[in-house]
Amino acid sequence: MATQNTLTKEATITQLFGDVERFVNQGDYSKAFKPIDKILQLNPNDYEALQCKAITYIRLEKYQNALDVLNKNFPSDKFILERAYCLYRLNQFSEVTEFLRKCRVDGHSNLGTRYLEAQVAYKVEDYNTALEIYYGLLQETDKNDDTYNDILTNFNAAKAALLFSGNNISEKYVMVDSLSTYELAYNSACVHIGQRNLKKAEKMLLTARRICKESLFEEDYSEQEIEQELGTINVQLAYVLQLQGQISEAIDIYQSVLKSKGVDMTVSAIASNNLVAAKKDTELFDSVRKIKVASANTLENKLFRSQRRIIAMNEALLSLYMHKEAVRKMLQVYPENDDLYLILASTSYHQKKNAKAIQDLLEFAKSKPHSLSINFALMQLQILQSNPLAALETFETHLSSINDEKEKYKPGYVGLLVWLYEQAGKQEKAVKALEKAGAFWKRGVTSDGSTSILKQTAAFKLKIGRYREAAQDYEQIVKSDPLDSQALAGLVAAYSQYDISLAEKYESSLLDIGTPMDIDVESLEKVVPGVKKSYIKKTDTKTSEGPTKRTPRKKKRKPLLPKNHDPSVSPDPERWLPKRERSTYKVKGKRKQQLSKGSQGIAIAGGGTGGTGSANIFGRSASNLLPPETVVTSSTAQQEQPLQKPKSGGGDKNKKKKKKGGNKW
Questions:
Q1: How confident is the model at residue 447 (pLDDT cuts 50, 70, 90)?
Q2: What does the alpha-carbon distance between residue 217 and residue 199 come to, in Å, rounded to a whole number?
Q3: Tell me, which fold does domain 2-139 have in CATH?
């Protein structure tokens, strides 16, 4: 009897597994739980059923439930890839990294775990590690294998991300672009974007879009599904166009992607952010809505830190345009980003608070003395405030924080330092700075820096009247490069101040400009584009035809005078005024007409209206009855498109209000 029950139980379990397989093949994973639970009721220790339950949870993206099943029923060395994948999808990156490292040490690593390890490294923005793992997998995988293209796609994505982060790629990772799939073409285009090869990137993105349309159409995808898949490619194409200055074309693509249904939220966020960046300070209120989409909390784990930082920067810039200081909160999240400090100072500067902007930059410069952008922004404001001494002090402090002398004595830095010394009236220090920089570059391997500094030194000495010293420096440059026309010209200018013979000697070495051509200036003026014909002097053609006839003058017309006009009597000065306004006019009528002008009929100042011209209703000005949203304060950001003025209750001060029919007021 027991044997019969056992056979019946096994048959039932086999039938239930068949139901599980049928539901899985149909893709209806939620219905697979019912037969799986029945199997576990019959045999709670059925490991195949437990495995099916964990995998079904993964298929339904219920990763925590799957992880609980695996941890509760299986030892730690079983289902390593499934456990790691659940941790990865739960964004527990530190845990999955440590788990995979331990498995690698224990010898439980395989192709799947290494692939996942590379994905985790890419997700945490450790692109060098991801590249190294993907490169190793490519060397071990056959090119005809289906997984080779997947690995190559992710390999190109890691290369592009590394380039976008400002780093360089090792030469061993350079490969020929593959266009076998649209994913490969897309990621190869991203690599070219990182290398700033925008024309090649645009061409490859167009190729990726074409391959995507053709391949998905052959696989019977719907038009909406194809548009969703094309969203990523189109946004990247718009980004490339935006970088090339084709702003209107990029805006059209962004708006088209945002209007399409079912677009991925990550793609929508990036398109919204880029659209805000393209529109800049126009359509601010629409940009506020777009930036809220891009900075939603649900995107925290879907965007990279660098992408979130850029969106935060654009949000800060939008706040600058909207006169809102919201940057300090972002500094707490991204303290390493110097641009946020500049945006914060720009907020004060944009509000005409120059002293506050300088004070903020001084504090930032103290905490980040090595920041070139912060120190240069501070110097620029100090120079705009006509304070070159403060700018000089700021620059000297920044130079003292630079340990690399090659960086410190860059020709650009030296030129700026000399200019600041000159503005501050410290010419001797300027000469010493130039000589010190020249001495450093003479010790160097290359002569480019030495020649540039020596030219600056000679030009400055010539400017302040040290002609002999300037001539010595220019002569040294000419000896090393006799064809340097700039140095020759400077040498001639220096010698001309104290030795004309030497100046004439070197003047013969200068290139001859050549004799000027015979140019008819008047004929050139006639063909200048944009000049109206009325501005062109017309030649006097009549003079060549001979003497012209003199036109007779018209006779003056005699004035018409009245018949009784007496020239000896002066006319009445009030003759032009109406009779009622003349001083001799006498009012006709009875005295009773003056009775209505007593004390009750005296005119009231304002005529019953408020002093501003707006009617006072119950003692309140009509302008105070406006709803608050119609008031535009003076702190509103200046926009390229002027705001329409709100209609106020006061109206025109010089116009009286007309009464409406039937109104008793």
A1: low
A2: 27
A3: 1.25.40
